[in-house]
């Protein structure tokens, strides 16, 4: 198990510097003034990465905590929420909205391509009375990247706040919170930043804070409530003791990211090379358009069983790729090429393992996957 290469779309491989940061001696994060300065410094790194002056908070918990906190803190019973859906995470927001008493207006777009902002606008011309809208940046199960900028441009014209799940996109594709006008942007530690699962972050606009602060009813949930996170630095107080070792690791991962000038370009190049490779070998991508450079989803060749494929890849080649989830669990295979996974050597090793495994399972390919990839990356 030790040197298993985890080429899944999160959690991703962790750099040694990040792993070591977790092992640092800790302080008392509630009492040590230096910890508040350290946390403030980490926040400014994130503001830098997200291109925003909005508040950013880093919560202790996996990405889902961020999604649920945003819904719990914004929604009051009866609020109408527009849930933009072109995939499993997109639709999943509807559950959180209902859980906190919101009235869901689900707008469905085809799952195999990005959301069409013009079509969304046509719907809003009829009815735009929504408190906010939810949207997923990268639909991880299908590898589709939605055009956040085009969509928030429309939402902002109709004064609808936006909550964007960018968990599997931010850090791997360009994100520009302030110029796009995103109200809440959600991210996680274990995808493109390649820190261990355990922290989730979000940027919160002034308009979103105002909406949260003007609630008439209390937020249902303490851990999920964003209100106590305001002015933590002035108050020198967090709502609960911070998971300091996870935060040390995440902060180191942010330093690695900021010190890596080619990070976004590398995602773009390798994402394109993986897609071209699979197609040239005769495999079929799931998406018709709007490919994310962080994960590639392709149709599982007929007759291949994921568990068997996974077993062979792990036992013989020490590599793991992913199946998909929900209704796509049986039909899609996915290679995560985000964060620390997004290096040619790792992708080459993965494609070679996949090539040999598919052949062993009786799948015919046009040429060896790793050789095509080598051509695509010269
Ligand atoms: C990974 C991910 C999350 C976090 O959820 P988990 O499935 O628990 O890791 C949220 N949204 C998206 C789009 C993700 O890819």
UniProtKB/TrEMBL annotation:
**SUPFAM superfamilies (alphabetical):** PLP-dependent transferases (SSF53383)
The record's GO molecular-function terms, alphabetically, read: alanine-glyoxylate transaminase activity; L-serine-pyruvate transaminase activity
Cofactor(s) it depends on: pyridoxal 5'-phosphate
Sites of N6-(pyridoxal phosphate)lysine modification: 191
Any one Gene Ontology BP term? glycine biosynthetic process, by transamination of glyoxylate
Q: Which UniProt keywords apply?
A: Aminotransferase, Pyridoxal phosphate, Transferase
A Pfam match: Aminotran_5
Q: Where is the Aminotransferase class V domain?
A: 32-322
Q: Which residues bind substrate?
A: 334
Q: What family name appears in the similarity comment?
A: Belongs to the class-V pyridoxal-phosphate-dependent aminotransferase family.
This chain's protein is named: Alanine--glyoxylate aminotransferase family protein
Organism, as annotated: Halonatronomonas betaini
